[in-house]
Specification:
CATH class of the domain at 35-206 in chain B: Mainly Alpha
Largest interface: A-B, 38 and 24 residues
Oligomer: heterodimer
Helix content of chain B: over 70%
Largest sheet of chain A: 6 strands, mixed
Bound molecules: adenosine-5'-triphosphate, magnesium ion
Radius of gyration of chain B: 21 Å
Order of helices and strands of chain B: HHHHHHHHHHHHHH
CATH superfamily of the domain at 35-206 in chain B: MetI-like
Shape of chain B: globular
Chain lengths: 360, 247
């Protein structure tokens, strides 16, 4: 649990750079990967985020050597590893499904990698106990997987992956089988461990909250390609494309129109928009606006509050407006007290560049 | 349901115990022990059984594992293929094996060793299903991938991860195979070999009580084995002291 143990566990890995270059993989008619380029900086935790079926798992499995690309290169520490079988790639992997060996105790599971590497019995036992200690299961070494909870099993799986001092840590939705509380807790722990050990880590998830809270950088994937790669704040606040904007976080799509020189008019207000291509003035568009950028204020106006749902610190209000249809707004729960359903409101928009897309 | 199985066994037992003039005695079972050919014949059959199950395990475990890992979509087809020996008449199997091994050295062709090869085919519907069920019960693909990413090569994966986790299924298919060999008559007699079952039939022609007594014994023994198996299999993992090996 302590930094001292972590330092003892860390051996020589100062963080390994990883590059995926032009990866392609087809399954029959499905293009699972369609020219994926991705670079991992040594020691960073990169979250690969995207909708189901966009190729996240395929990318991770190709990096692990469990799947072969049709085309493209995989460079680990500058060396091409395509063609190197999985068992010689020195990568630690944690799977979405529980994957502990049911016939072995937690300790033997963790010691499996060292054992395969023919380390002496006393040494691998010491290392297994150390790692179990590190993931907070020091006293559970003699338990079998079926005697451990789901969260505990994933901790053991993490310890097992770390036991081989991997050059890269690969996590494929390791938390998705767990309930919310355990998930949040284990998320923190993965983050702490990864920082202490400084292992380059690829974390695959379709949960945007997980990706944003955990990662140094987030890569958003769509249909086998990378759509945007950047720090969580950038992906959230400055989405590169409407797809990213809508996939990461909640998003309103409100009808508006272009009014020239990089501005749109929406809900009676003029906002600057990020110009992706030339649009002629007067063109109808959909304007993408985050709920937290929408401010309903009680007023003698045409919009009315339709419903109100309490989310903790913020409350999500849905407002029906004659020009905009249904608009979601996140307001602090204190302010929301004045916004009971039925209240007449004026909808104000925060001055912030917005993304637009063509109406469907 | 139970009566369907128990009545014939009870009737057989009663017949074996029947003495002259409606008396009952254990004479038949005493006669069994007195048969000079009992031990040699049983040895022949047990050796064939051992050969059969060794070949079966060596052949079927990698096959089933491979199908599960690499050709999961072909599972129904492979399963159907494994059932073929049930529908192909024994005579055809015999001729097939004889043709296939026509050029084999006499060591195989001229001894009961060749029976082991035929029994592997004959037992396939049972051994395949037992193994298939065992492999389906564990998440084999994930376990294998976990082991591979931890640095295990294929032989290590097979020995340390696959086999220990389908041990029960392997024992099960081995037992089914043994039971089959100890009861198979047609093929052995067509091939003109003397095995435990053919000997039993011969004895039966002279001393019916002895033969029936013997078959009841064989039946009860295989039941006991199957019972032991299902008890061992029913226990939770990690609690089976019977099979567990510490590493
Ligand atoms: N072994 C396979 N055989 C056939 N198609 C496959 C195979 N593996 C993946 N695919 C297809 O490739 C595409 C990408 O799959 P992949 O598992 O990489 O998606 P993912 O992003 O991990 O999705 P999820 O979030 O659902 O796990 C999907 O359309 C999937 O159906
Ligand atoms: Mg996936």
């Amino acid at each position: 649990m302590t930094a001292v143990t972590a330092r003892a566990v860390r051996q020589q890995q100062a963080g390994t750079p990883v590059e995926l270059l032009g990866l392609r993989r087809r399954y029959g008619a499905v293009n699972a990967l369609d020219g994926l380029d991705l670079t991992l900086v040594p020691g960073e935790l990169l979250a690969l985020l995207g909708p189901s079926g966009c190729g996240k798992t395929t990318a991770l499995r190709i990096l692990a050597g469990l799947e072969q690309p049709d085309a493209g290169r995989v460079l680990v520490a500058g060396q091409d590893v395509v063609g190197l079988p999985a068992h010689r790639r020195e990568m630690g992997m944690v799977f979405q499904q529980y994957s502990l060996f049911p016939n072995m105790t937690a300790r033997d599971n963790v010691a499996f990698g060292p054992r395969v590497r023919k380390q002496p019995a006393s040494e691998r036992r010491r290392r297994a106990d150390e790692l179990l200690e590190l993931v907070g299961l020091g006293s559970h070494g003699d338990r079998y997987p079926h005697q451990l909870s789901g969260g505990q099993q994933q901790r053991v799986a993490l310890a097992r992956a770390l036991a081989v001092s991997p050059r890269v840590l690969l996590l494929d939705e390791p938390l998705s089988a767990l309930d919310a509380q355990v998930r949040a807790q284990l998320r923190e722990e993965i983050r702490r461990l990864q920082r202490e050990l400084g292992i380059t880590t690829l974390f695959v998830t379709h949960d945007q909250e997980e990706a944003l809270s955990l990662a140094d950088r987030v890569g958003v994937m769509r249909a086998g390609r990378l759509e945007q790669l950047g720090p969580p704040e950038q992906v959230y606040h400055a989405p590169a494309t409407p797809f990213v904007a809508e996939f990461v976080g909640a998003m309103n799509r409100i009808p508006g129109r272009v009014v020239g020189d990089g501005h749109v008019e929406v809900l009676g207000q003029r906002l600057e928009y990020a110009v992706d291509r030339l649009r002629s003035p007067g063109a109808p568009v959909e304007v993408l606006i985050r709920p937290e950028a929408v401010l309903p204020v009680p007023a003698d106006a045409a919009a009315t509050v339709v419903s109100r749902s309490f989310l903790g610190p913020v409350t999500r209000i849905s407002v029906s407006s004659p020009q905009g249809g249904l608009v979601l707004a996140d307001v602090s729960s204190v302010e929301a007290a004045a916004l009971a359903p039925g209240t007449a409101v004026a909808v104000q928009l925060r001055r912030h560049p917005v993304l637009v897309r063509d109406p469907r | 349901m139970g009566a369907y199985f128990l009545v014939p066994v009870a009737a057989a037992l009663e017949f074996a115990l029947r003495g002259p003039n409606g008396t009952h005695s254990l004479a038949a079972f005493r006669d069994i022990a007195a048969q000079p050919e009992l031990v040699p014949m049983l040895t022949v059959s047990l050796r064939i059984a051992l050969g059969t199950l060794l070949i079966t395990v060596a052949l079927m475990v990698p096959t089933v594992v491979w199908v599960h890992l690499r050709l999961p979509r072909l599972r129904p087809l492979v399963e159907a293929l494994s059932l073929l020996p049930l529908v192909v008449p024994v005579v055809v199997l015999v001729v097939g094996v004889l043709t296939a091994f026509a050029d084999a050295p006499n060591l195989i062709k001229g001894t009961p060793a060749i029976l082991a090869l035929e029994y592997v085919a004959l037992a396939m519907p049972f051994s395949y299903r037992a193994l298939d069920a065992g492999v389906s019960a564990v998440r084999l693909p994930t376990l294998v991938e976990a082991a591979r990413s931890l640095g295990a090569n294929w032989p290590t994966v097979l020995l340390r991860v696959v086999v220990p986790n389908i041990r029960t299924a392997i024992v099960g298919s081995a037992l089914l195979t043994t039971a089959l060999v100890l009861g198979e008559f047609t093929m052995a007699s067509l091939m003109l070999f003397d095995t435990f079952p053919t000997w039993m039939v011969r004895v039966g022609q002279q001393q019916a009580g002895v033969a029936v007594g013997l078959s009841v014994l064989v039946l009860l023994t295989s039941w006991a084995l199957l019972l032991a198996l299902s008890i061992a299999a029913g226990r939770p993992r990690g609690a089976t002291s019977l099979f567990r090996r510490s590493s």
